[in-house]
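We store sequence with structure; for instance:
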Amino acid sequence: MLLRPAFRTLAVRPSTSSLLTKPATQQTRSFLPTPTAPPQKFTARKTLPFPRPVLYSIIRDIDAYSSFLPFCSASIVTSRSTTPPTHPISSTPTSEQTKGDPTQADLKIGFGGFDETFSSKVSCSYDDKVGVVRADSGEAVSGREGEVFERLVTRWEVKDLEGSQGKDSEVKLDIEFTFKNPFYAMVTKSVTPKVAGAMMEAFEKRAGELVGRRGSGF
């Protein structure tokens, strides 16, 4: 009789370490908010030999800004008041003078190699003493948050020069802006102090061209 060897089946238990799945180590990175550059404000003043209504009419014509103002490469009025304008209308009015005051405009502003287009809220006022046009930047037109400017405000003011019987005017331009990042302020520091003065010079040239072309008309 043949004897067959008996075989025992051994149950092999996996080690506890092989049954447990170690969670993957997750690394998190914390980002500190980028510091905002301090606000900057520059002002330019000029006495011009033109009546206040003429100069106010030029300031109010935002659609034309890109044709004569430096640092403004595009300007489009996107909304106007439905009420008639309160400023004086010349004896030979342009189509712009008869339209309602602009209330919203897209302005593309840039200098020092950076530019951005803003949808700006516009306010216009004119009385027997002073005319004011203010553009306050809002969201970037592209629909995303602006990358260069945190805030940008321009304010033009024109009033009669005292003692000139309405023939001469005082013009004042205030520009306030805040960069998103101090880096932009650093690389444009040689340009920003000159912005208001350059815009005022361009405005004076524009006034001379228009008055010489069609007369004061008021």
User: Anything to note?
Assistant: The chain has a mean pLDDT of 80. DSSP finds five helices and seven strands in the chain. The longest strand covers residues 114-126. The beta strands are 40-48, 72-80, 102-111, 114-126, 130-140, 149-160, 169-179.
